[in-house]
Every structure is written in C-alpha cells, then in structure tokens.
C-alpha cells in the first residue's frame, strides 16, 4: 500500500463516499491522511450510512460535518442527505458551500435551513455540473447574475418555487440535459396555475406529483419524457421530433399534446391512465420506429373503445415488445383482432388482467396466432385472496387453455407473474 501514489489513494477514498468510512480509512497511515486532505474528491453524509447519525443532535451533526469538510481541499462532489434532520442553521451551511464553491462540481442537499438561504447564490456556479436540492425554498432568481454555465443535471424535490423563477432558473442553464421535478410547491401569482418551461439543451425530463392547470414544455432536443402521478388540465410538448421515450404513469390530464415530437418515438409506456384511443393513436401513429409499446391498466374514455391490434401492426412495423393490460370486452375480440394481419417482429408479449374472465384466454390465443416470431410470453394476473367458486372455475379454465396453447407453441418461453 505504501507504494501507491497519493493520487490513487485519493481516488480510492473518493470511491468510498461515506464520510465515516473515509475518515476511518484515512487513519491507515500518513499517506492516506495526506490523500484525504489534498486528493479527496467525493464526500457523503447520509443518515442511512451510520446508525449513530440518528442519535446526534442537530448542532452535533453540524460540527461533525464542518470539521470533516474543512479538513479537505478540492472537493468536487458533496452530498448531505439527512432525512431525520428537520433543519440546519444557516451559518454552517453557508460555510460549507463557501468553502467548497471553487471546486465543487456536484451538490446533493436535502435539509431545510433556518433562516432560509439562497442556495443558488451560495453554491459554486462556475463549475457546478449536478445540483440536487430538496426541502428548500428558491426565490428571486436572477439569470443575469445566477448563471450556471456548466450545469447538466438539476433535481428539485419538495422545493417551493414560483413558476417564473423555475423558468428563469432553466434559462440560466445553457447546457442542462436532465431535469427532475418532484412534488414541487409551485407558487403562483396568477389564478390560472400555468407553467411554461423552455430549453434548447434538455434531453431528459422527469416530472412527478405536480398539479397544474397548464404545463407547456418547449424542448427541441428532448429525448425522454416521464410524467408520473400528476394532475394536469393541459400538457403540451413543443419539440422537433427528437423524443424517443415517452412514459405516462397515473396521470390525470384533459388535453395531452406532444405535437410533432412523436415521429422518432421508440418506446411508449402508458399505465394507469384514461385514454381516448382515437386521439392517443393519432398522437403516436407516425412513430414508425416504435419498438416497445406498453398500455398497462389503461381505461378507455368510451366503453366501446378498444386497442385495434391491426392498426398497431400497420403503423409500427418494427414493434418487438408489446404489453397490454386493460378491461376486456367482446368488442376487443370481435373487432380488435379481426383481419389477417401479423405482428411480424414481436418477440416479447406481455398480457395481463385485473379481473380474469373467459375472454382472456381467447385474447391470448388470438394474439399468439398473430406473432409468428414470438419468443417470450409473460402473463400477469391479480388473484384475490378470497375466491368465489365461479372465479376458481374461470382460473381453472384459463390454466387448461394455456396448457393447450403451450403444446402448440413449444418454442415460446412462458412465464407467469401473479399478485
């Protein structure tokens, strides 16, 4: 170990991450102490890393963090994740940020401060590449002063911020590629709860647990969009057809529009969502490169609607992974599987039920006939703890039907996942 260059030792300590582990390891010898002080790049204070963190008072934690940080030089990544701490005093937090601002490239911080401080002003803006804040308040964003020329990833969780300040913050990050917004407390100055965000560099956006009347996102280079647990009246995406992945999970929205952004979609994953099939299909119909389509737990706005599998086969010739789970009706079998079409490239098929019926086995059989190159079939089902005699008969009939099908399709790997 003595032959290792001090830079290599510093890299080893940085990979440990957890502050307590780093301090213990640095006591090995003088070279390791030197590496800790001069070569350490990453330091993490996480309440899950050490049980005693939960027993320390807030003031004691502040002292431990201060003493540890101030013994280092050149920190590039600082993570302070203390879930059990209600708030830190502002003074030590400011000291940590000011001490590291010249070298810091990543900052992860999730504790309130008293009084509230402007984290954007205190952290080192010139070199910061990753910023993750939680349980903080952001006010008075000044793009002309608070610029983040190197920031590539921004995460805001349980943060109070106005729609205008969020828009201004995004505009001050010319290289931002990843944006994550979770449970924001969005302060509105207008009765209409609307938010317009615009960026020419964004590639990946994740939005969770946000309620708005209107949300407009302008992102010409956006490649991935994931919206989860949101309540929106209007959501519009304005882009230039770069979107490759679209995920919508448990979202309530009246008007959904991705405009011209869907032409290059490769993955569409929609779950726990009410859709009008005609409008939804029109929205993604030009996605000729689509390879994976997942419609899981979807509810149709009209009882007479169903997924037209023949239309899927003609619009998405490259489709290789198809996942479907919705309330089956006679129309889904009578009209959804009509015609002589085939899903030529589908190799993985996932089908599921919430309430099993005799229609399900017929549906499985019909889809298997139209997937000549299928390699894997996954059946997802919900089995209630208390089953009536009729439910037991239905499950037994389904099992018998699947056994017969598998004798016919010996080349298909069949898996069952029940909950």
Walk me through this protein's architecture.
By secondary structure, this protein is of the alpha/beta class. The protein has helices spanning 6-16, 19-26, 30-38, 58-69, 90-100, 119-122, 163-171, 277-284, 309-315, 330-334, 358-369, 389-408, and strands spanning 42-46, 77-81, 87-89, 106-109, 112-114, 130-134, 153-157, 160-162, 178-182, 185-187, 194-199, 204-208, 211-219, 224-228, 231-238, 245-249, 252-257, 267-271, 274-275, 292-300, 321-326, 348-352, 376-381, 413-418. The protein is elongated. It starts with 5 loop residues before the first helix and ends with a strand. The model has no long low-confidence stretch (mean pLDDT 89).
For the structure shown, list the relevant keywords:
419 residues; alpha/beta; 16-stranded parallel beta sheet; four-stranded parallel beta sheet; 12 helices; 24 strands; 28% helix
């Amino acid at each position: 170990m003595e032959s290792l260059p001090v830079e290599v030792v510093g890299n080893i300590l940085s990979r440990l991450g957890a502050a307590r582990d780093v301090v213990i390891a640095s006591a090995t010898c003088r070279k390791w102490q030197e590496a800790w002080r001069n070569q350490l790049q990453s330091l993490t204070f996480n309440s899950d890393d050490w049980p005693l963190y939960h027993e320390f008072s807030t003031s004691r934690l502040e002292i431990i963090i201060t003493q540890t940080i101030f013994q280092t030089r050149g920190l590039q990544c600082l993570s302070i994740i203390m879930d059990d701490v209600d708030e830190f005093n502002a003074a030590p937090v400011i000291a940590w940020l000011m001490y590291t601002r010249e070298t810091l490239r990543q900052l992860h911080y999730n504790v309130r401060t008293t009084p509230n401080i402007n984290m954007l002003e205190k952290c080192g803006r010139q070199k910061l590449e990753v910023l993750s804040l939680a349980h903080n308040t952001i006010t008075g964003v000044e793009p002309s002063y608070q610029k983040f020329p190197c920031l590539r990833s921004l995460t805001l969780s349980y943060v109070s911020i106005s729609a205008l300040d969020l828009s201004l913050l995004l505009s001050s990050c010319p290289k931002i590629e990843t944006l994550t917004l979770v449970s924001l407390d969005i302060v509105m100055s207008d009765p209409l709860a609307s938010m317009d965000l615009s960026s020419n560099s964004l590639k990946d956006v994740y939005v969770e647990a946000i309620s708005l009347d209107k949300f407009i996102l302008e992102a010409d280079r956006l490649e991935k969009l994931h919206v989860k647990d949101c309540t929106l009246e209007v959501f519009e995406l304005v882009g230039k057809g770069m979107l490759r992945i679209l995920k919508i999970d448990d979202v309530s929205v009246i008007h959904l529009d991705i405009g011209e952004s869907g032409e290059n979609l490769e993955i569409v994953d929609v779950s726990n969502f009410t859709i009008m099939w005609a409008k939804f299909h029109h929205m993604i119909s030009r996605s000729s490169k689509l390879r994976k389509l997942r419609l899981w737990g979807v509810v149709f706005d009209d009882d007479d609607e169903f997924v037209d599998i023949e239309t899927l086969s003609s619009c998405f010739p490259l489709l290789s992974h198809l996942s479907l789970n919705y309330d089956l009706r006679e129309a889904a079998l009578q009209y959804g599987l009509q015609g002589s079409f085939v899903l030529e490239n589908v190799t993985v098929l996932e089908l599921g039920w919430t309430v099993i019926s005799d229609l399900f086995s017929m549906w499985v059989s019909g889809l298997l006939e139209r997937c000549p190159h299928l390699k894997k079939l996954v059946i997802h089902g919900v089995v209630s703890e208390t089953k009536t005699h009729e439910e037991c008969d239905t499950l037994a009939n389904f099992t018998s039907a699947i056994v017969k099908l598998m004798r016919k399709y010996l080349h298909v790997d069949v898996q069952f996942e029940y909950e």
